[in-house]
């Protein structure tokens, strides 16, 4: 199962909205005869790739498949893995954790047991759940995973007081920008307020990182922004006309968004903090002092992890995902 978890991690950044999943096929003496992982949404699941990697199919009749997530039972973009396991004759299945998605939710295990396959559930369960904080949150809490992110001056301001179009205060460095773009690419959506769009006209892309671009989302209750004149990818842009974080998340969930990175401004960040609707917070602090300006949001927590990137300090709060501590 540990090996299966390692394999699953190769899917980071390309499986969403699907989870990262790994699978290992072994003989009773422990010899590994097949390995696989889910590489990309729309492509084969971990079990499919693991079975395909086995040279001698006859060996499957005495093998055990270890899979980090319950094999699926549904026809989605691909056919059910439980059916594959049954059809190729694997007698024993070891599952890390159950799949909380409503289209599986225990039915994969039930299908296997119904035809007499031996199934063990809950091996390295915490680790297997922690592989996919986004997928687990989206399906168990019924809302997207929420990351809050801002950069601040040494004296706690996120920006100067300035008029629209005036240059924003710059806290990030070339290296920390790469890490922010990596963080963006690991979310389905990036949310900003209309004030941020009017003041900065950001593009919210991942140009400093070779990952996919997240869907841009603008909270624009009063219809202040003109989508045509923004730098945002208007083909994919979602505008939200609602005011509360809970309402925003409900709409994003309906649109199939499983994770959102909230990038500001201060008021929208503070509204998510006040509503308790966040999972993880990343704060970058520059040595630059502004003396006056827009105060940074107040989170009132002790960091779970801190590290330095060049001149800047990064503090991580809340439930820190495994992929956020990589540095
Ligand atoms: C597995 N093994 O490797 C993964 C699973 O549209 P599909 O066919 O790709 O199905 C996606 C759903 O399948 C996803 O929401 C989750 O419930 C499950 N993911 N299941 O047996 C895998 N990635
Ligand atoms: Zn599957």
TrEMBL record:
The active site is at residue 47. PROSITE patterns: CYT_DCMP_DEAMINASES_1, CYT_DCMP_DEAMINASES_2. Residues 1-111 form the CMP/dCMP-type deaminase domain. Zn(2+) binds at residues 45, 72, 81. Binds 1 zinc ion. Substrate binds at residues 184, 204, 207, 263. It catalyses: 2,5-diamino-6-hydroxy-4-(5-phosphoribosylamino)-pyrimidine + H2O + H(+) = 5-amino-6-(5-phospho-D-ribosylamino)uracil + NH4(+); 5-amino-6-(5-phospho-D-ribitylamino)uracil + NADP(+) = 5-amino-6-(5-phospho-D-ribosylamino)uracil + NADPH + H(+). Its cofactor is Zn(2+). Pathway: Cofactor biosynthesis; riboflavin biosynthesis; 5-amino-6-(D-ribitylamino)uracil from GTP: step 3/4; Cofactor biosynthesis; riboflavin biosynthesis; 5-amino-6-(D-ribitylamino)uracil from GTP: step 2/4. This is Riboflavin biosynthesis protein RibD. The lineage of its organism: Bacteria, Pseudomonadati, Bacteroidota, Bacteroidia, Bacteroidales.
């Amino acid at each position: 199962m540990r090996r299966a978890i390692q394999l699953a991690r190769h899917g980071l950044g390309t499986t969403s909205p699907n989870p990262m999943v790994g699978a290992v096929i072994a003989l009773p003496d422990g010899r590994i005869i097949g390995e696989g992982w889910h590489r990309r949404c729309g492509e084969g699941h971990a079990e499919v790739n693991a079975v395909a990697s086995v040279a001698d199919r006859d060996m499957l009749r005495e093998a055990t498949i270890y899979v980090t997530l319950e094999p699926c039972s549904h026809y989605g973009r691909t056919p059910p893995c439980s059916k594959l396991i049954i059809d190729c004759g694997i007698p024993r299945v070891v599952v890390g954790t159950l799949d909380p998605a409503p289209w599986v939710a225990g039915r994969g295990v039930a299908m296997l047991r119904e035809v007499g396959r031996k199934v063990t559930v809950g091996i390295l369960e915490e680790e297997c759940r922690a592989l996919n904080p986004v997928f687990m949150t989206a399906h168990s809490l019924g809302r997207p995973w929420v990351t809050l992110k801002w950069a601040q001056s040494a004296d706690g301001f996120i920006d100067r007081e300035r008029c629209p179009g005036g240059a924003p205060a710059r806290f990030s460095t070339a290296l920390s920008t790469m890490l922010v773009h990596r963080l963006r690419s690991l979310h389905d959506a990036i949310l900003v307020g209309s004030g941020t769009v009017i003041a900065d006209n950001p593009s919210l892309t991942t140009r400093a990182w070779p990952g996919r671009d997240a869907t841009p989302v603008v909270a624009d209750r009063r219809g202040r922004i003109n989508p045509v004149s923004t730098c945002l990818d208007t083909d994919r842009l979602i505008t939200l006309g609602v005011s509360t974080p809970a309402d925003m998340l409900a709409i994003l969930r309906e649109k199939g968004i499983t994770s959102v990175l909230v990038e500001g401004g201060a008021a929208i960040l503070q509204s998510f903090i006040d509503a308790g609707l966040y999972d993880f917070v990343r704060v970058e602090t520059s040595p630059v002092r502004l003396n006056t300006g827009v105060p940074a949001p107040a989170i009132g927590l002790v960091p779970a992890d801190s590290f330095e990137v060049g001149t800047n300090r990064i503090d991580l709060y809340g439930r820190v995902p495994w992929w956020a501590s990589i540095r």
